[in-house]
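Final report, section 2: Outcomes. Of the targets proposed, Protein methyltransferase is the one most frequently requested by collaborating groups, and we therefore present its record in full.
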Amino acid sequence: MGIASDRSHIPLQRCADLVIVSDTPKGRGVFASRNIPAKTVIDVCPVLVLGVEENENHIKHTSLYHYTYNWPIVDENGNHKVTQAVIFGLGSIYNHSTLDQNVGWERDAERLIVTYRALRDISAGEELCISYGGRLTFKDADSVETASEKDGLDQLNKIHLD
Ligand SMILES: C[S@@+](CC[C@H](N)C(=O)[O-])C[C@H]1O[C@@H](n2cnc3c(N)ncnc32)[C@H](O)[C@@H]1O
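The predicted structure is given below as tokens.
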């Protein structure tokens, strides 16, 4: 069987000219330093799937948990469960955008990889952002403070504790 048709040989691709910017409002982030056409494969990252108990008892209590992705598994009894996976490489550095994601990601549970693709044309200088889904463990830096939240803060700022 030739290498190209062998499922155990996983071709890797990474888009050229990506840079890490270390001081964004979201911490480090990955940016494009040249235009990237829609549908370009941005990256293919290998993953480490954590055991359900390993995740619950250990990883959930560490900062690593903020870097893991939900990962569906089937246990030895055929039950479908969700655990977490650690994504190696840039996959752990893409930040979240709720309204303006420009990169989509797809799990390959059999080959233990995640593939990232440009959802639209991306311009040089743009940050590459994915969706983390509903599991945000931080305040979204993109979220705009609503008027009532701002009023509440203004009121709080006026309260003086003796
Ligand atoms: C997978 S890491 C991404 C890389 C991270 N920025 C870093 O410097 O290591 C996830 C963490 O990035 C930050 N982050 C990602 N998206 C964000 C957003 N929309 N707003 C604020 N912080 C964000 C949060 O601290 C989150 O826990």
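The domain at 3-158 is CATH 2.170.270.10 (Beta-clip-like).
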